[in-house]
Specification:
Order of helices and strands of chain B: HHHHHH
Helix content of chain B: over 70%
CATH architecture of the largest domain in chain B: Up-down Bundle
Mean pLDDT of chain A: 90
Largest interface: A-B, 71 and 85 residues
Structural class of chain A: mainly alpha
Largest sheet of chain B: none
Radius of gyration of chain A: 17 Å
Number of strands of chain B: 0
Distance between the termini of chain B: 59 Å
Mean pLDDT of chain B: 89
Shape of chain A: elongated
CATH topology of chain A: Helix Hairpins
Number of helices of chain A: 3
Number of helices of chain B: 6
Low-confidence stretches of chain A: none
Number of domains of chain B: 2
Shape of chain B: globular
Low-confidence stretches of chain B: none
Number of domains of chain A: 1
CATH class of chain A: Mainly Alpha
CATH architecture of chain A: Orthogonal Bundle
Radius of gyration of chain B: 20 Å
Oligomer: heterodimer
Largest sheet of chain A: none
Distance between the termini of chain A: 53 Å
CATH topology of the largest domain in chain B: Four Helix Bundle (Hemerythrin (Met), subunit A)
């Protein structure tokens, strides 16, 4: 029988895949995609808790709605930054972006 | 039984396509597999009885975010050079696996207070709307702040990509 633990372990697996992508990749677009995977993993955990712990309150689902809103805003601004970066440097390699490095 | 089968299928699809996003060299294929990962997660929301969120997942992630990502890949012509690994390839893998092991150990050791599961799956859309917009539940101010955040993000994106 599938229960709460299955869903939160699945969420942890997805989160760690996203974390690995964000740490180990150099392409800024792929890093943004990995961050999206991490946000989705958090949403799976929130909805699972909402279903199994507080089925009447729906609080987890409301939190998931807000996470989706913030994810949409983050992607819009992130991709705008990537395109502005590409105009200046002709590449989107995060290893090359060290303007603000001390 | 049907729920269990669909959970395992959707979980395998989500984890497999997420791994492919991280491991593939071709950026365009990675973006397409990210879309399939989003679809699998929408299916997982259905197995959890969150029908409205499943629909929003398809509309927002598959409909808007995936299209934005594909557009950015086309505009930056990065599909040709691929997505190389940084020097954190091994260290990142070790850190992620260690975090995963720690989280699974904690999740298995915690006695979760699971509520009574006799409530039937019902449509959640009307209740979500009522809870978001009635003052008693306390989500009205966050709701308004979220709309201001979206407006600011859209304006910021326009300012950032505008030709000087």
């Amino acid at each position: 029988m599938v229960g709460l633990q299955h869903y939160i372990i699945l969420s942890a697996v997805l989160f760690c895949i996203g974390l690995y992508g964000a740490l180990a990749k150099r392409n800024a677009v792929i890093i943004l995609m990995s961050i999206e995977i991490m946000l989705n993993a958090a949403n799976v955990a929130l909805v699972a808790f909402s279903r199994y712990v507080t089925p009447q309150l729906l609080t987890g689902q409301i939190f998931a709605v807000f996470v989706m809103t913030v994810a949409a805003a983050e992607v819009a601004v992130g991709l705008a930054i990537i395109i502005a970066l590409y105009r200046q440097k002709e590449k989107v390699d995060v290893g090359e972006v060290d303007l603000m490095k001390w | 039984m049907g729920l269990a089968i669909s959970f395992w299928l959707l979980a395998a699809a989500a984890v497999g396509s997420a791994l492919a996003v991280v491991l593939l060299r071709n950026v365009f294929r990675a973006a397409l597999l990210l879309i399939s990962c989003f679809f699998a997660i929408a299916g997982l929301f259905v197995t959890l009885g969150a029908d409205f969120l499943a629909m929003v997942q398809v509309l927002v992630y598959v409909g808007a975010i995936a299209v934005l990502l594909l557009l950015a890949i086309m505009l930056t012509r990065e599909a040709a050079t691929g997505s190389p690994f940084s020097r954190w390839r091994i260290g990142g893998a070790i850190a992620s696996v260690a975090l995963l092991a720690a989280m699974i150990a904690v999740f298995r050791a915690t006695p979760w207070k699971v509520a009574d599961q006799s409530v039937v799956l019902k449509p959640t859309t009307a209740e979500l709307g009522a809870r978001l917009l009635t003052p008693e539940s306390g989500f009205v101010l966050p709701f308004e702040i979220a709309s201001v955040l979206l407006l600011a993000a859209v304006l910021g994106a326009i300012v950032l990509v505008k030709e000087k």
